[in-house]
């Protein structure tokens, strides 16, 4: 074999070095990548010189008995399978133990200083649903408040205070009007009386020394902050009496609450969002159904008009993004006439009323810039990948044929969704029961903070008769949290970590099981010489059964690696959160580098795992051997991988964007009353973006479910194609299993190689 003269080449060449008589042009038909790489040289190399391909294993050889996925196989990675099953059994036992010890009511209801639930039916506190703090200034941070560990007495009340009033002021007014005590006593203990002196009141701790306007948040009373001329106030006051003879600043309450005031309106926001869902759930379901039908139509059309449909994807995505840019520009120009629109996000601060942000020019200008960047990126990718997309389109056509012959694969995403939902629900329920396990634990609280017994465990029933009460006058024995000293309670943090880790393992196992089952079904299709006559019945069911029966250990092995990486990422984020205040620039830089490295590692492992699962579905070998074979096969054909893999995913991603974007535009026009001709949308919505974002996000997930089957199909066909090229030579005795259109496009991509 003589080398091609270099003077005939106009582009940078790619050399194919092979041993004498063994260089097969079809192995490098992907070598020509249009304007990207140029043509291919085939240079003969002496037979006694080691080939570079040997570093990645020997190519497959012809086997007349190989007809696709191996039927006679044995169990693989048995040790990992046993560990996985033991972990699941332990997970079930953990859930049962947590169910016995936990009480979700502790998460649903706040608890007063005596350990009683606020708002629980059948109790004296049934109509008292809000927790009130006697002295909020003793609380140092919101986390202390939400964990019910604030060093002050807490009682259940039916409503929060609405005005400023001290206990001394109430006593003075009580002599003239008894109603003042009736208003004040609802924030006191049931044994309180209006005639105590301030000293006795502080000693008995029956009432707060002062109350101030508050609002309920998370069933707890927090200061009703407001801003007046840029100054933080409560009830238009910046200073108030604390009831102990001192004057306190509203800023001190703000520090004690640590920004909780910014979230006081979250409850009303949640109610408004719920109202919008209640009014639009019917239309949301219709939109998601349309998204499902549209995804089906695209998958069917891909089989017949993949090339044309790609241009529909491209033009549709560019058009939808362009419409978004135009709409943002219109909103931006319309808001120029409003004086309030010149404000910025820094001016209004953090607001729970999200609709306020849509009244700012800055918001729409930001949206417009983001959409413009996305538009430019999509156009540039289309320009640079234009010569590679042709091969991807042919692969998509082959994938459509495979799905057409195995239509049950389109139903499989529903099974995956059900299994994932079960895993998520079990994890959430177990986490809640673990978090609410234990018995009420009471701690000594010293209002003055000068007690040597502070934070010691106590018994509220006998506390007044103990030496602690005598040594620390005014000390209280208040409820702190739920816990215990048993072995189970000591290991609850460990159980939380175990719950999270097994959850990640199960989630990745379900995904791996789906990928292996789909790969087995599509490999069965590929290795059928006469399609569909040679395709056995129920290929997906057979592949699923093989994966469960023989390869649970291998799938658990692959998913374990991903779960460990994800666990490390979570630990990294946890440490970053805990050490955020002590970090310097160098540590933040290292954190970013670690995040980037773990992200790259996770995606690389996921890519290798998918191809390993394909090898497992075909040959039935263990995970390590399959991963090695898949890696070697891909490295022997690295140019082909570069051409097909990411380009195919890009085309499918355009399809997902088109489905979600099309439904999103229709939903936007509908929920904003701009399609009265077709149907009258729901009126008087609080936030139209609530159902809109729900429809867009749900449509993307539905499209992702359908197109992920397509992506797995294309990847399986591609792996089988590489195996086919190494096993066969296209002769009558060793014919290719690949379809002629797919083989033809590769030959057209490299006519110089075809001549060789």
Could you characterize the architecture of this molecule?
The chain is mainly alpha-helical. Among the domains are: 89 residues, no CATH class; 44 residues, no CATH class. The strands form seven sheets. It has a two-stranded parallel sheet. Strands 3-4 form a two-stranded antiparallel ribbon. Helix 12 packs antiparallel against helix 15. It is elongated and about 110 Å long. The N and C termini lie close together (8 Å).
Q: Which helices and strands, and how do they pair?
A:
Elements: E1 14-19, E2 40-45, H1 78-101, H2 105-108, E3 130-133, H3 142-146, E4 154-157, E5 165-166, H4 167-174, H5 179-185, H6 198-204, E6 210-211, E7 214-217, E8 220-223, E9 225-228, E10 231-234, E11 239-241, E12 247-249, H7 250-257, H8 266-334, H9 345-348, H10 361-384, H11 389-405, H12 412-435, E13 439-445, H13 467-471, E14 476-483, H14 487-490, H15 492-526, H16 539-550, H17 552-578, H18 585-619, H19 623-636, H20 638-671, H21 689-727, H22 740-749, H23 751-755
Parallel strand pairs: 1-2
Antiparallel strand pairs: 3-4, 5-6, 7-8, 9-10, 11-12, 13-14
Helix pairs in contact: 1-12, 1-15, 1-17, 4-5, 8-10, 8-11, 8-20, 8-21, 11-20, 11-21, 11-22, 12-15, 15-16, 15-17, 15-18, 15-21, 17-18, 18-19, 19-20, 20-21
Function: Choline transporter.
Family: Belongs to the CTL (choline transporter-like) family.
Catalytic activity: choline(out) + n H(+)(in) = choline(in) + n H(+)(out)
């Amino acid at each position: 074999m003589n080398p091609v003269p270099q003077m005939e080449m106009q582009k940078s060449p790619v050399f194919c070095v092979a041993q004498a008589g063994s260089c097969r042009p079809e192995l490098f038909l992907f070598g020509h990548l249009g304007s990207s790489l140029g043509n291919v040289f085939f240079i003969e190399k002496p037979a006694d010189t080691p080939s570079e391909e040997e570093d990645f294993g020997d190519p497959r050889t012809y086997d007349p008995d190989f007809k696709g996925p191996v039927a006679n196989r044995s169990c693989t990675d048995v040790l990992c399978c046993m560990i996985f099953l033991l972990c699941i059994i332990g997970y079930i036992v953990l859930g049962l133990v947590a169910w016995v010890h936990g009480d979700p009511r502790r998460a649903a209801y706040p608890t007063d200083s005596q350990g009683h639930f606020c708002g629980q039916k059948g109790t004296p506190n049934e109509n008292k649903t809000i927790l009130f703090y006697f002295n909020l200034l003793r609380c140092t941070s919101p986390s202390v408040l939400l964990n019910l560990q604030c060093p002050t007495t807490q009682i259940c009340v039916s409503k929060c205070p609405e005005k400023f009033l001290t206990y001394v002021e109430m006593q003075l007014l009580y002599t003239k009007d008894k109603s003042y005590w009736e208003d004040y006593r609802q924030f006191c203990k049931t044994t309180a009386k209006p005639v105590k002196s301030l000293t006795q009141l502080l000693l008995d701790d029956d009432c707060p020394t002062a109350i101030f306007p508050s609002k309920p948040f998370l069933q707890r009373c927090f200061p009703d902050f407001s801003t007046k001329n840029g100054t933080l106030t409560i009830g238009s006051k910046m200073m108030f009496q604390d009831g102990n003879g001192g004057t306190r600043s509203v800023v001190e309450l703000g520090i004690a609450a640590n920004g909780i005031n910014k979230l006081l309106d979250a409850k009303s926001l949640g109610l408004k969002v719920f109202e919008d869902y209640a009014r639009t759930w019917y239309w949301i379901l219709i939109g998601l159904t349309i998204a499902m039908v549209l995804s089906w139509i695209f998958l069917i059309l891909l089989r017949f008009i993949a090339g044309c449909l790609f241009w529909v994807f491209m033009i549709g995505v560019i058009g939808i993004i362009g419409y978004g840019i135009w709409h943002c520009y219109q909103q931006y120009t319309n808001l120029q006439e409003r004086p309030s629109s010149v404000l910025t996000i820094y001016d209004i601060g953090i607001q729970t009323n999200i609709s306020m942000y849509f009244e700012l020019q800055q918001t729409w200008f930001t949206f417009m810039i983001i959409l413009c960047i996305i538009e430019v990126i999509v156009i540039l990718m289309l320009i640079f990948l234009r010569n590679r997309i042709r091969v991807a389109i042919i692969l998509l056509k082959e994938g459509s044929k495979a799905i057409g012959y195995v239509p049950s694969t389109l139903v499989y995403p529903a099974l995956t969704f059900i299994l994932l939902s079960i895993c998520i629900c079990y994890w959430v329920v177990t986490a809640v029961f673990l978090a609410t396990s234990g018995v009420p634990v009471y701690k000594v609280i010293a209002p003055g903070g000068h007690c040597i017994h502070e934070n010691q465990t106590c018994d509220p029933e006998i506390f007044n008769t103990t030496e602690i009460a005598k040594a620390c006058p005014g000390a209280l024995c208040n409820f702190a949290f739920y816990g215990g000293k048993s072995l189970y309670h000591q290991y609850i943090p460990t159980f939380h970590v175990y719950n999270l880790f097994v959850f990640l393992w199960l989630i990745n196992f379900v995904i791996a099981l789906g990928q292996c089952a789909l790969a087995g079904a599509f490999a069965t299709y590929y290795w059928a010489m006469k399609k569909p006559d040679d395709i056995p019945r129920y290929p997906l069911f057979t592949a699923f059964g093989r994966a469960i029966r023989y390869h649970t250990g291998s799938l658990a092995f692959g998913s374990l690696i991903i779960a460990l990486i994800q666990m490390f990422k979570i630990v990294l984020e946890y440490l970053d959160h805990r050490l955020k205040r002590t970090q310097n620039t160098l540590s933040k830089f290292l954190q970013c580098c670690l995040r980037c490295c773990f992200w790259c590692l996770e995606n690389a492992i996921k890519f290798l795992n998918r191809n390993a699962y394909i090898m497992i579905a075909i040959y039935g070998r263990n995970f390590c051997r399959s991963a090695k074979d898949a890696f070697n096969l891909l490295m022997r054909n690295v140019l082909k991988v570069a051409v097909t893999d990411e380009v195919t995913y890009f085309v499918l991603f355009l399809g997902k964007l088109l489905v979600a974007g099309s439904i999103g535009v229709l939903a936007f026009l509908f929920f904003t009353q701009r399609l009265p001709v077709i149907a009258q949308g729901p009126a008087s919505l609080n936030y139209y973006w609530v159902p809109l974002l729900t429809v867009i996000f749900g449509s993307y997930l539905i499209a992702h479910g359908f197109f992920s089957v397509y992506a797995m199909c294309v990847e399986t066909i591609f792996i089988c194609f590489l195996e086919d090229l190494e096993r066969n030579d296209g002769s009558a005795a060793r014919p290719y299993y690949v379809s002629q259109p797919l083989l033809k496009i590769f030959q057209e991509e490299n006519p110089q190689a075809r001549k060789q």
